[in-house]
Amino acid sequence: MHIERPEGLDEALAALAADPHATLLAGGTDLMVEVNLTHRRPASVVALRRVPELREWDERMIGAGVSWARMESGPVTGLAQLARTVGSPQIRAVGTLGGNLGTASPAGDALPWLAALDAEVVLASDRGRRRLAWDEFLLGPKRTARQPGELIVGVQLPEALPPHQAFAKVGVRQAMVIATVNCCVVRDADGATRVALGAVGPTVRRARRAEALVSGTVRPSAAVLDRFEALVREEIAPIDDHRASAAYRRHAAGVLARRTLERCWS
Amino acid sequence: MIVTLEVNGEPCAAEVAGFESLLWVLRERLGLTGAKDACLQGECGSCSVLLDGEVVCACLVLAADAEGARVTTVEGLAGGSEGELHLVQQAFVDAGAVQCGFCTPGLIVAAAHLLETRPGAGDAEVREALSGNLCRCTGYGAILRAVARAQSQATQGGAP
Ligand SMILES: Cc1cc2nc3c(=O)[nH]c(=O)nc-3n(C[C@H](O)[C@H](O)[C@H](O)COP(=O)(O)OP(=O)(O)OC[C@H]3O[C@@H](n4cnc5c(N)ncnc54)[C@H](O)[C@@H]3O)c2cc1C
Ligand code: FES
Ligand code: FES
After folding, report:
1. Which tens digit of pLDDT belongs to each residue from B117-145?
2. Domains of chain A: which residue ranges?
3. Are A147 and A186 in contact (CB under 8 A)?
4. Which residues from A are below 8 Å from B51, CB to CB?
5. Which ligand 1 atom sits closest to the C-alpha of A123?
6. Residue B10 burial (CB count, 10 A)
7. Got the DSSP string for chain A?
8. Measuring from atom 28 of ligand 1, which residue has the nearest CA?
9. Into which CATH architecture does domain A164-263 fall?
10. Longest C-alpha distance within chain B, in Å?
């Protein structure tokens, strides 16, 4: 195995240009599990943890190399809430936003937040940068639009972050658990509401009809919330797997989305 | 390839092959068998070590990417030549927080780090800080009592 350990973004992009199919390594919390358990053996690795540009975080952009631990103690409500639920302190110390996107698990906990914000993924290669909407980037379970030679620089956020953001997740226990269903709801000052759910389809998805129902300045009545729950259940496509049945996921998604929405009002 | 690291304050160079983890290198190449090798998937925390001052699962660190890192294992916590135990180690002994002992090195590394970085941590914070370390024997009660004992010794210099 060959490893490159670039100390700057240009150096990283040059290493990738020279070896476009090299495997990118950030915190290793997904990649090393594959190495240890499925005996994945990439021929070459470009390790990104020494690249300072990827750890930058400003109003509009969060670097791919920002760890869960930083997100957890950061200023953005929804992101801090979801980061707290990820793995354990050991995982949060090294696991990154870019790694969550790179893995593109249907259950990735950062993904509903990014989808609810309509965030964009910023990719770079030695030929330049491009920005893809979250749903252009996430193509399927563990499939993304990243091309050989590209890396994720970070995510671009909308100009103003919604004042109300809430994230919640259902799993089999409290600590260290991959989501059975996860959900993020955000509400703008004018009442526009966006709802995204993970682990209920091949990629994270928005419940757009449910969003339309509750967008506005009127607090939804119990009857509207019932209808909201029902719409959420109609707009997802969960499957049976070792974590839960599709029927359970469908039920849980409705309950979770309703609770998360109500938190945006309190 | 050769990877150079600082382990428990000593510079060292280890021959590392392909996809070896830091855990493997510590145990099999450097003879430091304190950090335990259990799940190899980041779930149990028995391989916890400090990497540049943060608690990580050594099984998830690619050894080749640890070049230049500062690593502290449970062996590095006990005090030098007198072999005096670290406060947290002594508290685990005194509180009887060890049964089979497999989880103990990882828990001690995590608890020692907590004590150093957040000495006044409350019960919820302690539980959260140790949530990445699984124990199949003790039921955690004695472990939490050991941490409380170490905390009060660190802050007041006396046992609770
Ligand atoms: C015990 C345990 C618990 C976990 N719990 C959760 C959880 O609760 N919620 C959750 O969402 N995830 C969880 N995970 C999964 C994992 O921690 C996250 O997906 C994490 O964000 C991965 O980040 P990383 O930096 O460790 O990625 P790595 O393992 O380094 O990389 C992951 C993938 O992304 C690619 N990649 C990394 N950085 C970039 C980049 N800048 N550009 C392009 N590609 C890149 C890599 O090539 C690789 O394919 C858990 C993992 C473990 C082991
Ligand atoms: S062996 Fe590393 S976390 Fe279990
Ligand atoms: S004492 Fe046996 S696993 Fe904790």
Report:
1. 999 999 999 999 999 999 999 999 999 99
2. 164-263
3. no
4. 94
5. 42
6. 9
7. -EEE--SSHHHHHHHHHHSTTPEEESS-TTHHHHHHHS----SEEEE-TT-GGGG-B-SSEEETT-BHHHHHTSS-HHHHHHHHTSS-HHHHHH-BHHHHHHHT-TT-TTHHHHHHTT-EEEEEETTEEEEEEHHHHEEETTEE-PPTT-EEEEEEPPSS--SEEEEEEE-SSSSS---SEEEEEEE-TT--EEEEEESSSSS-EE-HHHHHHH-SSSPPPHHHHHHHHHHHHHT------SS--HHHHHHHHHHHHHHHHHHHH-
8. A28
9. 2-Layer Sandwich (3.30)
10. 50
Per the structure block, which two tokens stand in for A263? 């938190």
The answer, for B124 touching chain A at a CB cutoff of 8 Å, is no
Beta bridge partners of A4: A46
Q: Output the six-digit token pair for A231.
A: 């719409």
Its pTM stands at 0.96
Nearest chain A residue to B132 by CA: give it: A88
pLDDT of residue B160: 47
Query: Angle A50-A55-A59 (CA atoms, 0-180°, nearest 5)?
Result: 165
CA–CA distances in Å: residue A160 to residues A37, A45, A82, A215, A263: 42, 37, 19, 17, 20
Task: Give distance in angstroms: CA of A162 to centre of ligand 3.
Answer: 45
- Domains belonging to chain B, first-starting first, are 2-76 (3.10.20.30), 87-156 (1.10.150.120)
Residue A143, both tokens: 């499939």
Q: Degrees (nearest 5) of the Cα angle A162, A262, A138?
A: 55
ipTM confidence: 0.95
Residue type, position B155, single letter: T
Q: Show the low-confidence residues of chain A (pLDDT under 50).
A: none
Tens-place pLDDT, residues A135-171: 999 999 999 999 999 999 999 999 999 999 999 999 9
Count of CB atoms within 10 A of residue A37's CB? 11
CA distance linking residue B41 with residue A32, whole number of Å = 8
Give the pair of three-digit tokens for residue A19: 């070896």
Residue matched to tokens 């599990």: A33
What's the token pair of residue A192?
A: 């526009």
Nearest-Å Rg of the Cα atoms of chain B is 15
